[in-house]
Design goal:
It is a single chain. The protein is mainly β. 7% of the residues lie in helices and 46% in strands. It contains one helix and 19 strands. It has a five-stranded parallel β-sheet with strand order 1-6-11-14-18, with no helix packed on it. Strands 4-7-12-16 form a four-stranded parallel β-sheet, with no helix packed on it. Strand 2 and strand 3 (18-19) form a beta hairpin.
């Protein structure tokens, strides 16, 4: 099973900037017998490359799962950095995104598991006067907070591999969080 995706970033001067994840699984399952599972995602500006989370309902949460009897499971993701000359429009109160994010996710295989995530450096936004002015004026003048950009984040998740197999978690953080 191979899943690849790239999130877009849209918006412009005077508009709210919106961006999407590269690959997003919410309350879903992927399962294979002896084959591998591979996900490769590139998030839009400050958005996660590969997001796998449970589906939170009113009475019950449905976790996501990736399972293979013998194959390897590989998740590779990155979030996008702001590029010089690019407009930031109105970008307010956002998390910095993660390369790979797991929440309420179960990963189990007889093979190996590898997670490789890269966060973005969002500090270049602070050099753009229009961004600083819009962020400071947001929330009725209270300003905006921007979260750190992480390589890998995990919460309420499990990874199980086969006997003699390995779990590799390789994360490269981006910028730290900041407030304007």
């Amino acid at each position: 099973i191979v899943v690849r995706g790239q999130g877009a970033t849209a918006g412009g001067v005077g508009q709210t900037v919106v961006a999407g994840s590269g690959v997003r699984v919410v309350g879903g399952s992927l399962e294979t017998g002896s084959g591998s599972i591979s996900m490769d995602g590139r998030g839009g500006l400050a958005q996660t490359g590969v997001t796998i989370t449970g589906l939170i309902g009113e009475a019950v949460t449905t976790p996501s799962s990736l399972r293979s009897a013998r194959g390897d499971i590989t998740l590779v993701g990155s979030t996008r950095t702001w590029a010089a000359g690019e407009t930031s429009g109105t970008l307010q109160n956002v998390g910095g995104g993660s390369g790979v994010e797991l929440g309420q996710t179960n990963i189990a295989t007889g093979g190996n598991v590898r997670l490789d995530g890269s966060g973005a450096d969002l500090t270049g936004l602070m050099n753009q006067a229009a961004f600083r002015a819009a962020a400071a004026a947001a929330n009725n003048g209270a300003g905006s907070t921007f979260g750190a950009s992480n390589g890998i984040t995990m919460s309420d998740s499990n990874i199980l591999v086969g006997v003699g197999k390995s779990i590799e978690l390789m994360g490269t953080g981006g910028s730290r969080g900041f407030s304007v």
